[in-house]
Amino acid sequence: MKKMIRTILFLLIVSVFLPYNAEAQLPDTLRLEFDFVGAGNAVMDSPPLYAGDIVDGDELVVDGTWWVELDDSDWPATTDPGARWDYIFDNHFDYDPVSFTWTAVFDGNTLPEKPTWGVEHSTNGTMTGTLVVLMTLYDYDMNGELSADERAFGLFAGTFIVMKYGTGCFANYCGDGAYNGSLTNEDPVNFADDAVDGSCILDLINCSIGVEEASWSYIKSVFK
């Protein structure tokens, strides 16, 4: 009798959780930290797309790729890059005479739609969501005018929202996070691509935990 009960319990557990084997190997809360590199161009590309590789950090995402896309539907066309850059700078960057910096915020308030992002790993799956992008340029000569040299280097930072639209190991996760890094441009006068590198932290939770708890309740109810 006891052997039969153990067999039935085992079969019930397998039948309930078999579709979630990949996710069940991970905890209900998960912190991912990783470093990334890449490139992109907000002036010459429409829509602006920054993308690259995840080069160090948590094994769940290392050797994967990432991308960030901005909604430029109300920006001038890329056929006139000078006018497009002037529009971006005039409408998105604010000058702070105390810190001698220009800062731009790209989010759902300053763009028609929130910027979007994604992480893709060939083995472990994908994550997507929205984000806020803050970009800072420095007024090194403190004259309140942005020169080409001052466009050659900048900093960026922001926050993530992780939507529950992932696949693979990340299918049941949602959460938030933050990132920061730097960008360099070897030829800003001719609107060359920006090279970027930075670090990211994602704090994830299992958004389907209620389903698992209900499944355990069902199993326990069978043997009351």
Which SSEs are present, and which pair or pack?
Blueprint: H1 2-17, H2 21-24, E1 29-40, E2 49-57, E3 65-69, H3 81-92, E4 93-96, E5 101-106, E6 116-121, E7 125-138, E8 153-163, E9 173-184, E10 194-206, H4 209-222
Antiparallel strand pairs: 1-2, 1-10, 2-3, 3-6, 4-5, 5-7, 6-7, 7-8, 8-9, 9-10
Helix pairs in contact: 1-4
Short structural description:
With 224 residues, this protein is an alpha+beta fold.
Q: What are the defining features of this structure?
A:
8-stranded antiparallel β-barrel, 4 helices, 10 strands, disordered C terminus, alpha+beta, about 220 residues
Give a description of the structure.
With 224 residues, this protein is an alpha+beta fold. The protein has one domain. 21% of the residues lie in helices and 41% in strands. An 8-stranded antiparallel beta barrel has the order 1-2-3-6-7-8-9-10. Helix 1 (2-17) packs antiparallel against helix 4. The radius of gyration is 23 Å and the shape is elongated. The two termini are 15 Å apart.
Q: In this structure, how is the largest beta sheet organized? A: 8 strands, antiparallel, barrel
- Number of contiguous helices: 4
The N- to C-terminal Cα distance equals 15 Å
**Mean pLDDT score, rounded?**
88
Low-confidence stretches: 7-24, 211-224
Quaternary structure type? single chain
Percent range for β-strand residues:
35-45%
What count of structural domains?
Answer: 1
Molecular shape: elongated
Care to count the β-strands?
Answer: 10
Percent range of helical residues? 10-25%
